[in-house]
Amino acid sequence: MTKRKFYFIISGMIVVLFIGAYLSIHIGSVKIPYSATLKAFFNNSGGNETTELAMFETIINEIRLPRVLAAILCGAALSVSGAAYQSMFMNPLVSPALLGVLAGAAFGASLGMILSPTMLAAQIGAFVFGILAVVAALFLSGFFPGNRLVMLIMGGVISSTLFTSLLSVVKYIADTKNELPTIVYWLMGGFSSVTMPVIKICGPILIIGITFIILFSNYLNVLSMGDEEASSLGVNVSKIRNILIIATTLCCSLTVSIGGMISWVGLMIPHISRMIVGHNNKFLILFSALLGSLYLLIVDTLCRGLFTAEIPIGIVTSIIGIPFFIFVIVNTNNRWN
Amino acid sequence: MDSLKVTDLSFSYGNESKVIDNISFKIDVGSVVSILGPNGSGKTTLLKLILGLLEPQAGIIEVFQTKLTSLSLKERAKKLAYVPQKHKAVFAYKVIDIVAMGKLPYSGVFCTTSQKDYIEAAEMLDKMNLKHLSERPYNEISGGEQQLVMICRALLQRAEILILDEPVTGLDYGNQLMLLKKLKELSQTGITCIMTTHYPEHALWTSDHSIFLKKGKIVAGGKTDNIITGEMLYKLYNVNIKIIKTSINESNISTCVPVI
Asked: Is the ipTM of this complex over 0.85?
């Protein structure tokens, strides 16, 4: 793929993403006219607007816009993290959950829910324990001699299993009337509780994480050739891998803080992207970011627009993801080693 | 002038016995050197030490009279290029992408490769008569072509020493000879080639000098024709092999014939 063609596709996707976001804002239980959206965005009347327009403005700015932004940011973060992990760990079938970030974040959020009635505790818990789980994986991997990459995966398996068990403990001790249903529902994923302050705090960090992964995407090609080859080409493998692990961990733990467990995106989107732009990470990572954003935006819009009651997004991404995974295994097996 | 000088080098994995045991040698610029020895003799470990992928417990490695330890990773990559054993990339990168990786030692913080790097990669492929493979997935070309692509990448690194780990392993006879011929040609342009091999006849055909390793120690080293003898091969591999010398088109050729 030539650079010119690639940037043409990227420009097209950005336009589609903006149009998609604009359309998505209109979909929901309250129908908002298209003209009202622009007025709501740009109205500086200082409260002199009509009651109906004020209501639309509240719905758009406090409910719809935060979740549209959440879907876009989380989609991009999960997709670039997945693509980066697949290259870093030289395995097209790994997801960002490999080092335990999602298990840790799920435990942290559940713990927050039983310790405090506010969502803030769950969000902080998800972020902190997501990072802690990866730190535990890195720490544990240091104890094992041998291939660094394999030991990291071993550390990730131990950390994931530990935090999954701890999550079960939290579920077991949670109050079955209120806390347990909240935990279970939250683990299914969704952006219904996302607010603008959450986006204002998490958004910039997510953007920084995604930008870092995009900036370091050129390293991923050589990392996927193996540590020895990468070192012989002058790459400081441990340093670059750690930078990428930090960036992906920040991204993934924040996505759990914002929207709970949204599975399969980090596995599925990089594969679709490979089919379109090829395997070169120079193109793949940026394309995955935009495709992931568009995908979660569409799925989230369907989740709240298809039926009167909202469907948790994690359920939909899993339902779409499983047949896609089978399709990927059947169709691209002979291209992987 | 020495391109590589190894002095009193020792290495062991953890607390195990020494894999490389106090070895010293030097290699002239533009020569082809074969490192031979039975399985587990320390050939690959020695290459990894020379590349700086492993840290020796004792000894000094000098590349063009500069200590390897005083060179940064990028500086090392500009002097030493690695051609790994036959392998397949996990992802189906295009051949041109793989070759362009040879410019990484010259790239900046974000490891970006420019349009100019890709033009140079294309020129290198053309020079090696591999232009037709440029857009093909690396996974789908033959083993011999993959090794040539790796050499192409190493040449783009502009390194003066090529380190090849069993370059012909797994290749068919035609590809083996093609690769060896290419190494001989490269040495004539001043590039030093150091390779490990399991085939003494390959050393006889291509190498100016050879090093015999056994249990991490050098058992013989010097001009290939002088040290590859039936007696030495028996000492190394415990099998009877005769060295047959003949002359074809006025050039002397030696080869190994096993006595079964």
From this structure: yes
